[in-house]
Amino acid sequence: MKLTAICLAVILFSCRSLVTTYEDVESAIYYEDASQESAEFNDTLKVMTWNIRFGAGRIPFFGDSCGDRVLMTQAETEGYLNSIVDYINSTEPDILLLQEVDISSKRSAYVNQLQYILDRTHLNYGAYASMWNAEIIPSDGLGKVDAGNAILSRWKITDAERIQLPLRTDQDDLTQYFYLRRNILKAKIALDEENEIYAVNIHATAFATDDTKQKHITKYKEVLDDIVLLGATFVTGGDFNSIPPGADSTDFCKEDICSGESFHTDVDGGPHKEGSYFENFAGEPDLIQKLYDYHTAINLDRDYAVEMENRIKSSLAAAQAKLGTSREADDKKAEVEALTAISQLGYEQGKLAEIKSRQKMEETAKETARKQGPAAQYPTQPTPPPDPKAEDWAEKNEWFGKDNAMTYTAFDLHRKLTEEEGY
């Protein structure tokens, strides 16, 4: 009891803050590989984004995979990091955007994962922005944490900024204090003497039940728009924790349910599992649609399908080889791992088939339109003029078109009045 009181006093009266807080914009932290490789820009770029889950692989950690693990050994951490390094080296990206990178965390044996990856790959420079930096997390034995976003590059990184994202508002004050402080990491990369590019990395909220995610994506788009206004070029990616526009489902509570949990028991369909439900606010299912409006340098679907197909082929060959070797050695653990990998690749083959099918439909539609001739042969009805009453109402309600939540609600009420109640 006396020892507990002393420990509590140390926490309460220490001059050092338990949690690092941040300004709206701060300089990021720079890293370099000790032995750098020369790199020349050849007019093409390969960019990769990857949430590496603090090097935990498929370990069933508490909080995100129905597990109870909290800490890894150094051997485990470095083992998973070596697999990550191997894939990076086989893929050879020029710019790498990482999320959930541990720098000095008890859960990953205090391994500086950013430096570890830099020292073992062809990438020479790094920038880091912490999203969770606490001397101690007083729950589940998690202890000290320093984790965040990183940008790695063949070429020198400058002007790297950590841009703070809004905190969740659906938490009590104590939980919010010790919780993640998510951010956007923006940096400038000099490809050569004539060409430079911005790289932008985001990790948006996953478990918020309020409109925090909307605020994160809105801020992210503001950052990208500012770059566009400069007339500059950017590459961007990250973990949006969002579903793609037009997704056929917005509720994955049943798929993600853990033993002992219960969802959808209330009259209104709740409760929902945090991070598995995507209708927490009006417009959430199509939240990232606005990000598709930028001019892209590549056909994303086509290039992604080719990359995905090549990756599946190589990974399947490796998994089948591992399966054969494990059976010869009667290694049951390795056999299960190989079968799990083959099963996952089968699922990815199904997704690839969907992408190819959509591409074929789009090509067929374009060919049909080409054969039918210019669209001018099929005149469309002129757009009716706006209703003066609607314009007058919009002018009086200044929030319309600016506050997304209220605007979507207004549209929904209008639809119900006109379509369902006959007004």
Keywords:
five-stranded mixed β-sheet, 38% helix, disordered N terminus, 10 helices, alpha+beta, 423 residues, globular, 10 strands
Describe the protein's architecture and organization.
- Helix 2 (74-91) crosses helix 3 (113-120).
- This protein has helices at 2-13, 74-91, 113-120, 173-178, 212-229, 253-256, 300-328, 332-372, 388-396, 404-420, and strands at 25-27, 29-32, 47-51, 95-102, 125-137, 143-153, 157-164, 183-190, 196-203, 234-239.
- The termini are far apart.
- The protein is built from 10 helices and 10 strands.
- With 423 residues, the protein is of the alpha+beta class.
- The model is unreliable at 1-13 and 375-381 (pLDDT under 50).
- It has a 5-stranded mixed β-sheet, covered by helices on one side. A 5-stranded mixed β-sheet has the order 2-5-6-4-3.
- It is globular.
- Helices cover 38% and strands 17% of the residues.
Mean pLDDT: 85
Number of strands: 10
How widely separated are the two ends? 70 Å
Strand order of the largest sheet: 1-7-8-9-10
Number of distinct helices: 10
Secondary-structure element sequence?
Answer: HEEEHEHEEEHEEHEHHHHH
Low-pLDDT residue intervals, each spanning 5 or more residues:
1-13, 375-381
Tertiary shape: globular
Structural class: alpha+beta
Rg from C-alpha positions?
Answer: 25 Å
Helix content: 25-40%
Major beta-sheet overview: 5 strands, mixed
Beta-strand residue percentage = 15-25%
